[in-house]
Amino acid sequence: MKKLIAVMLIIVLTLSLAACGGKKKVEETKGENADSKEKSGTIEEKVEDKDELEPVTLKFTYPGSHQQDEEKVEEAINEYLKDKINASIDIEPIDWSAFEEKTSLMMATGDNLDMIFTASWMTYYTDVAKKAYVPLNDLIEKYAPKTKELLNPALFEGPKVDGVIYGLSTNKETAGATGLFFRKDLVEKYKFDISKIKSIDDFETVLEPMLETIKKNEPGIYPYYSNGYNSLVSFYQPLSIGGGDTPGYYNPDSGKIEYTQESEEKVLLYDLAYKWANMGYINEDAVTAEEWVPNMFCTWMPYKPGKDAEMSAQLGVELVGEVIGDPYTTTCEVTGSMIAISRNSKNPERCMMFLELLNTDKYLNNLLNYGIEDVHYLKVKDNVIDFPEGVTASTSNYYPSSQWMFQNQFLNYLRVGEAEDKWEQYDAFNKSAVVSPLLGFAFDATPVKSEIAACKNIREEFEKALVSGVLDPAVAVPEYLEKLKANGSEKIVAEKQRQIDAFKAKNK
Fold first, then answer.
1. Among 468, 475, 485, which Cα is nearest to 270's?
2. Distance from first CA to last CA of the chain, Å, rounded?
3. Given CA atoms 192, 194, 197, 203 in this order, what sign does their dihedral have?
4. What's the pLDDT at 234?
5. What pLDDT does residue 51 have?
6. How many CB atoms lie within 10 A of CB 118?
7. Average pLDDT of each block of 10 consecutive residues along the chain (508 residues)?
8. How far is the C-alpha of 311 from the C-alpha of 327, rounded, in Å?
9. pLDDT in the model for residue 392
10. What's the rounded Cα separation, in Å, for the pair 67 and 69?
11. How high is the pLDDT of residue 177?
């Protein structure tokens, strides 16, 4: 590195004034903070010609399991990368149960680590506060221009903290919505028109008669299947703030943080859950159930194009889905899958070069996702693949099943059975979404972390039982709200309102 810098200093001294002006422009790029300004000088001094780049190895970790042929795939990736950016990748998946603890320790102790999967629902904001990640604004500008041009601008806006990007979001669905999913054979058998279910206002008038029909005529089939929080009441709340564990959502009509448990939609759904449970439409083990089952007629899931095909393959029965309400693009959605560059990395520039390729190079993207052609998968059509004969997802020697983590999903091959226009559907879905007025806002829970912990315990006490129809909402909801307030929920709501008001004032 010292030799490289010495060479570059000689080059810089011989550059024209125009090049000096270019450097000044980079150093003055908007969105820099003190840390990113410090990085910009290093970025400007890097050699862009791959033939002059020293070979480096980049460690990349994500939550998942080790694949039997991981080393074979690494070898193929590294052979390809040598001619691209003269880098090698060391893939290190860490089991989900240990991922956050292990990576936190690795970053704190200075262990070798370059790229790391992160998300807003994991420790992204906590790690940003710890300065665990490298600022990416300048790195993206210089080393990922095609990615910046290609991706939805919301993917760069959502991860910002004080104007600085610390995670590069995955290009997948940039919106979230509620979906109801049905057994296709039963929909066809009884000629149900599920397209008439447009919003939760149609649940009682349109959906309920369907559940009654199934209850009367299909013994052994759950009319509505609930598994705890993935339940009837888990309707998509696009403007929740700070996650479901914290009281208060943003009402755009009033501009205020209000209690979710008092919203018109939530009260309606609590009541329906209680009614349907007493009519025998909901499975009795809803509070403790964890997985979906094939012998269900209807259930709730987060909606995205192709979700029905994914779940059909998982359950072994064909499902059809119907989106309920409008999809929303929120900070939560666009920060749900990101790759950050660790502060421990000695080669952040090369990391960004790799991420640029992962977002723009179809061969590399699918090599990481699916392995080696004719070894781990077979091409059925130009963009459609299948497992070799006798191999399944669970028996494959290489199938991380982490496509949603590895950057640009629009480059992914399609599996047999998936709609061949899947990515066109994704694009249309993303474009149809309502953009949240709070896009880019991230709630800092630090001032009320003890109150949030206390309220989380109260939520555990009431929420699952309410959404599963076990508790009478007329009795339980007032008690629920009283306990929340007794444990600091009003302080949480006030803090959320303060931060949102400051965000709106700053972004007028």
1. 468
2. 45
3. positive
4. 55
5. 59
6. 29
7. 37 34 32 35 43 89 94 96 95 92 89 92 85 96 95 89 92 87 96 92 94 97 83 61 78 88 86 94 88 91 85 88 85 90 95 97 97 95 93 90 93 90 91 86 85 89 89 95 95 94 87
8. 20
9. 87
10. 6
11. 84
The span from the CA of 426 to the CA of 408, in Å, is 12
The CATH class for the domain spanning 2-172+337-367 reads alpha beta
Q: Helix count (H) and strand count (E) of the chain?
A: 20, 17
Q: How many residues does the chain have?
A: 508
Whose CA is closest to 464, among 190, 135, 181, 230? 230
State which CATH number among 3.30.70.890, 3.30.1490.20, 3.90.105.10, 3.40.190.10 fits the domain covering 175-329+442-508: 3.40.190.10
What is the structure's pLDDT at 243? Answer: 67
* 157, 334 Cβ separation under 8 angstroms: yes
Q: Where in the chain is the domain with CATH 3.40.190.10?
A: 2-172+337-367, 175-329+442-508
Cβ contacts of residue 446 below 8 Å, gap of 6+? Answer: 129
Which tokens hold the place of 457?
């315990």
Look up tokens 């001094």; give the residue. 45
Give the model's pLDDT for residue 142.
Answer: 96
Q: How many whole angstroms separate alpha carbon 263 and alpha carbon 53? A: 58
Encoded tokens for 449? 């972390």
Read off the tokens for 117: 């999967």
Work out the number of other CB atoms within 10 angstroms of the CB of residue 314. 13
Q: Give rounded-to-5 percent helix, strand, coil for the chain.
A: 45, 15, 35
Cα 392 from chain centroid (whole Å): 26
Other Cβ atoms less than 10 A from the Cβ of 162: the count is 9
Whole-angstrom distance, CA of residue 50 vs CA of residue 354: 12
Structure tokens at 168: 């590069």
